[in-house]
Design a protein that fits this description.
two-stranded antiparallel ribbon, signal, DUF4410 domain-containing protein, globular
């Protein structure tokens, strides 16, 4: 009876806490895609000239669902879309690609694909991008790292060199310095149709991942 209770508690813990989650064993060629980093704190949803027409009584167009106006929801949607599209692209290329759940330690072998959304300020400093791409920015970069897990433990993608301050513009993320091995892989994501933009970015990242793995000794 105690054994059954212990087993049930373990199952419940695994379901409630990502750190207990397990992923199926892969091999040296398995590609693990983690969620890319995109800030959502203290940012308003993008303003659109048609917003007033969509408001109740303001026109014929229906107002979008409120959940789409929330930065946290939009950030989650973008991150989810990118991860799914990237895994799909890699699988279409004949690779064993899998999502790495948040909070799960990467396996001892295989490849880890991860990244961070970035924006630049007037001083040409890189910042972690927020939903809305900062204060009216027209594009955002996607810095990507592709780590061979059998050779080393993945290092941090970047170092924070300046956190939020009173001099930071509204909607600006923390200024960061990318680690050298990440800086070469950057993909521009222009503002516009979210689905098309994310799909295009995933395709470019997928090509870079496949080239990196192919070139590995």
């Amino acid at each position: 009876m105690n054994h059954r209770r212990t087993l049930c508690l373990a199952i419940l813990a695994a379901a409630a806490c990502p750190a207990f989650a397990q992923i199926a064993d892969g091999n040296a060629n398995t590609l693990y895609v983690s969620d890319f980093e995109l800030d959502d704190a203290s940012v308003s949803a993008d303003k659109n000239p048609l917003d007033n027409a969509r408001r109740p009584g303001g026109g014929l167009l229906p107002r979008p669902l409120l959940r789409r106006d929330k930065p946290q929801t939009r950030a989650s949607d973008i991150v989810e879309q990118l991860a799914q599209a990237l895994v799909s692209d890699l699988r279409r290329a004949g690779r064993d690609a899998r999502r790495l759940p948040a909070g799960v330690t990467p396996p001892a072998q295989g490849w880890l694909v991860r990244g961070v959304f970035l924006d630049g300020d007037e001083g040409n400093r890189l910042r972690r991008a927020m939903v809305g791409f900062g204060a009216g920015a027209n594009e955002v970069d996607l810095a990507v790292a592709i780590d061979d897990l059998s050779k080393q433990t993945p290092a941090p993608l970047y170092q924070v060199i300046e956190s939020h301050s009173s001099t930071s513009k509204p909607g600006a993320g923390a200024a960061i310095a990318l680690n050298p091995y990440v800086a070469a892989a950057k993909f521009v994501m222009a503002r516009g149709d979210q689905h098309k933009t994310v799909e295009h970015a995933a395709s470019e990242v997928s090509d870079a991942v496949l080239a990196r793995v192919k070139a590995a000794p």
